[in-house]
Design brief:
With 347 residues, the chain is α/β, with parallel strands linked by helices. It is 34% helix and 15% strand. The protein has helices spanning 20-28, 46-50, 62-65, 89-97, 114-123, 163-176, 188-194, 208-218, 239-249, 275-287, 306-320, 327-330, 333-339; strands spanning 6-9, 33-37, 58-59, 72-75, 101-104, 127-129, 150-156, 181-184, 224-227, 253-258, 293-299, 324-325.
Length: 347
């Protein structure tokens, strides 16, 4: 994907979990983020809010961002249902009038909005709906499980809990250790970071597992594929996407992701089961079709001190008997060690 100079729009929602797209782009593409647009936090230090992003300014208006010579305005949040906040239309129109590309990860497609399309045509601006699925997808054919490579899927206790972050960190750690590893993006933010992938949650339900199969088959030459999970299999709203991902990726290994202290699903009054119950559910469903096991726990301890995070990691290890870590605070070595026996030819 070409280098961009991105202004990330988070208006009123800047935070580790409230603006997941923004936080991830700042973490993994800091050299391409020139400013964050959020009038409620303007002038504050980004690292005081997200723990990352030193030197990236937070500004109040789009006009202020033009001094940084941006190429793109990125919508930096993922709302429930992916609906575009009505109040954001004005700033998007202003950005189009300034010939900025609009990078949109919501379910509301800008290319289907007559006002945005007309403005973009007039001013020569590109509208990129990242979640727009490719045409001509097929149903799942249960063919991936026969491949000799290692497929790892990050699964979670909830949405917005660190599945993408864990997948990226595991992939990068594996590459540093000499593994031929690739991150497989299945969500809008992952696609913005990786430059390729399919946003699985906009695919027609019949074709979800087939779309994941397509991603795997296109990369079947890799020694290891680390597939970004979506939603959670226990979520009443998003379980269909999670199940389709599981069946399509046919992973031999799962990494269970969680945020310590999150006891209920973010958007519903549903209590999150224990680690061991989550492990049992995922392994039981998967094993009906292919051998699969949870091999490690990855915690998202954002906002916690290292000492607090270490206690949470140790508690997860004691409860599950599995290797546990926070990939950002403590690295992924214990996860790689857990995956070593699954490595093709055990190299």
């Amino acid at each position: 994907m070409e280098k961009r100079r991105m202004v990330v729009l988070t208006e009123g929602r800047l935070g580790t979990f409230t603006s997941k797209t923004a936080a991830s782009l700042i973490r993994y593409k800091p050299d391409e983020v020139v400013a964050v647009l959020d009038s409620t936090h303007a002038g504050k230090k980004l690292e005081d809010i997200l723990e990352i992003g030193h030197g990236i300014p937070i500004v109040a208006t789009l006009q202020e961002t033009l001094a940084f010579d941006p190429t793109s305005l990125v919508i930096g949040i993922a709302t429930p249902g992916g609906v575009l906040p009505e109040a954001w239309r004005a700033v998007i129109c202003e950005a189009i009038q300034n010939r900025l590309e609009i990078v949109n990860g919501l379910h509301t497609f800008l290319t289907e909005d007559a006002e945005f399309v007309s403005l973009a045509k007039t001013h020569g601006a590109r509208l990129w709906d990242v979640r727009q699925p490719p045409a001509h997808l097929d149903v799942g054919r249960h063919q991936v499980h026969k491949l000799p490579n290692l497929r790892v899927l990050t699964v979670g206790a909830d949405s917005s809990i660190g599945k993408m972050l864990a997948a990226i960190e595991i992939t990068r750690a594996a590459r540093r250790a000499g593994w031929d590893s690739e991150f497989v993006a299945t969500g809008q933010t992952g696609i913005m970071i990786e430059g390729s992938g399919i946003a699985i949650d906009t695919v027609v339900s019949d074709f979800i597992s087939g779309a994941v199969e397509q991603l795997i088959m296109e990369r079947k030459h890799r020694e290891m594929l680390v597939v970004e999970g979506q939603g959670t299999i226990i979520h009443p709203s998003y379980s269909g996407v999670s199940l389709g991902l599981l069946h399509g990726a046919a992973p031999q290994a799962l990494v269970l992701c969680h945020q310590p202290g999150r006891d209920f699903l973010r958007n519903l009054p549903v209590k999150i089961p224990s680690y061991n119950d989550l492990i049992h559910v995922h392994e039981t469903i998967a094993r009906a079709l292919f051998p699969c096991e949870v091999v490690a726990v990855s915690l998202n301890c954002a906002g916690m001190t290292k000492e607090e995070a270490r206690r949470a990691v140790d508690a997860a290890h004691r409860e599950t008997g599995l290797p546990a870590t926070d990939c950002v605070k403590f690295g992924c070595d214990v996860i790689l060690e857990a995956l070593r026996s699954f490595r093709p030819n055990n190299r």
